[in-house]
Amino acid sequence: MSTSPTDPIADLASRLRRGVLMTSRRLRSQRSADLTEGQYSALAQLDAHGPAAPSDLAARECVSAPSMTRTVGCLADAGLVERAPHPTDGRQVVVAITEQGREALYATRRRRDAWLATQLDGLPPDELEALGRAADILRRIATQ
Amino acid sequence: MSTSPTDPIADLASRLRRGVLMTSRRLRSQRSADLTEGQYSALAQLDAHGPAAPSDLAARECVSAPSMTRTVGCLADAGLVERAPHPTDGRQVVVAITEQGREALYATRRRRDAWLATQLDGLPPDELEALGRAADILRRIATQ
DNA sequence: TATTGTTATACTCTATAACTATA
DNA sequence: TATAGTTATAGAGTATAACAATA
């Protein structure tokens, strides 16, 4: 590495990067076979923030509009989202998650949580506490 | 969620999953434009564990052999790895990272570390300590 | 004229199946 | 006959450019 080993922040950043990326890799491998990462993310957005236009989803997920058109199309074909016309603006479309979509989303989350819970089970209380604090800090960092 | 909110392990797993996946997403977005995630992973393997056969890399990265052939081909075309014949087994190929490959790998790591260090900078000491402990625990969890 | 969404087209990454060379 | 690697081919996913409908 190029950074000085005596800089504690740089050292922590490197260790944390490795831990986070390795764990995320294992977490992602627990996803449902018939739900891509992009579809999962779009569903999570719709579940967390309610119905949205495809352009909004594309912007939030950092993908192109045609790509989101395709993602939404796949999800609609599978019955996981529903498209409805915008009440006042005829150009826009409103995409909403369906009950079936929530089930698919939650199933993947349950699988990931189950894997992670298995790994956590049996850890000493002080390690669990450190992870609990880290979880909240990581979420704060990522949303900044 | 389906799990009981009173189960502390399940609750921690869910919070940690969110924190890890959100952070990993931001970290991945800091990668070099001309190095895919698969190429980055292969380079990291070769850098950490030394020269390896394509089949070994494919198994470790959980991709097919033809896929690794292609990844190694791209890396070789870019001068980031070198292919050499196996000393005793004429069927095998030995792939090794080059100095240029190390530079490309470290450049991406530096970019990710720099982003993360920026986020860490200014956090109170107790939060840094929690993250430091979590980093090691996460790495242990992911490699189990 | 600008914006929203879609279609057309091409490129990248991945996988399975078939092929070549070596053991 | 089995194994390591590659090539052939096809299937997702994404992007840019062009198009249709609406504001």
Describe the model:
Two copies of one chain form a homodimer. The first copy, chain A, is mostly helical and 144 residues long. Chain A has a single domain (31-142), classed as Winged helix-like DNA-binding domain superfamily/Winged helix DNA-binding domain (Arc Repressor Mutant, subunit A, Orthogonal Bundle). The first copy, chain A, is built from six helices and two strands; from the N terminus they run ααααββαα. Chain A has a two-stranded antiparallel ribbon with strand order 1-2. The longest helix of chain A has 22 residues, at 99-120. The first copy, chain A, is elongated. The model of chain A has no long low-confidence stretch (mean pLDDT 90). At the A-B interface, helix 1, helix 5 and helix 6 of A face helix 1, helix 5 and helix 6 of B. The first copy, chain A, binds a DNA duplex (23 and 23 nucleotides) through helix 4.
The number of E-state strands of chain A comes to: 2
Task: State the order of secondary-structure elements of chain A, H for helix, E for strand.
Answer: HHHHEEHH
CATH architecture of chain A: Orthogonal Bundle
State the strand order across the main sheet of chain A: 1-2
Instruction: Give the assembly state of these chains.
Output: homodimer
Name the CATH class of chain A: Mainly Alpha
State Rg of chain A.
19 Å
Largest interface: A-B, 53 and 53 residues
- Please tell me the total number of domains of chain A: 1
Structural class of chain A: mainly alpha
Largest sheet of chain A: 2 strands, antiparallel
Poorly predicted sequence stretches spanning 5 or more consecutive residues of chain A: none
Examine the coordinates and then state which fold CATH places here, giving the name of the CATH topology of chain A: Arc Repressor Mutant, subunit A
Compute the separation of the termini of chain A in Å: 26 Å
Portion in beta strands of chain A: 5-15%
Helix tally of chain A? 6
Helix content of chain A: 55-70%
